[in-house]
Amino acid sequence: MVVLSKIYTKTGDAGETALGNGARVAKHSLRVQAYGTVDETNATLGLARLHAGGPVDEALQRIQNDLFDLGADLCRPDMARDHEAGYVPLRILSSQVARLESEIDGMNAALEPLRSFILPGGSALAAHLHLCRTVSRRAERLTVELATMEEINPEAVKYLNRLSDWFFVAARIANDEGRADVLWVPGLTR
User: Fold this and answer.
1) Where do the domains of the chain lie, and which CATH numbers do they carry?
2) Which residue ranges does the record assign to the Cobalamin adenosyltransferase-like domain (predicted)?
3) What is the spatial distance between Cα 136 and Cα 1, in angstroms, rounded to a whole number?
4) Which pLDDT tens digit goes with each residue over 22-50?
């Protein structure tokens, strides 16, 4: 259980932060950027939820919880030493990726195939989900770059890749099952 009785600690005043294993790193390190951008994705998702209801909001809440799991995963390096932690460190599981895939397939079944690229917009929920999509793509790019330098959980990359697809399909659902999608018209303003 997490207990936060004091919010500021002053331990980061010199530009460093602690990772999940206690190691101190620069706040601008790629690992911190990756899990920080996952946190940013979660914040944009909170905005999207202001426009959601019912099963969509429930799914978004599950994803918000997953994003905290993902942040915990990314902030703990040295997967090979997980057994030394004295507890089982939180890692993204293949079942979380599979759940996203199943939900994408379920939503996509209600949609007509795309015949044009779409512009981010339409309903307020769709616009916010497109913002979630782009921020999660940035988190994915940073995580993939981190994986070229350090060991990370491969399910973390898969989760981020599916998540941006989930947001895309959910945005189409939010646009009257794609009927209110804003279509790109190539060369429209030439």
Assistant:
1) 29-178 (1.20.1200.10)
2) 7-173
3) 27
4) 788 888 999 999 999 999 999 999 999 99
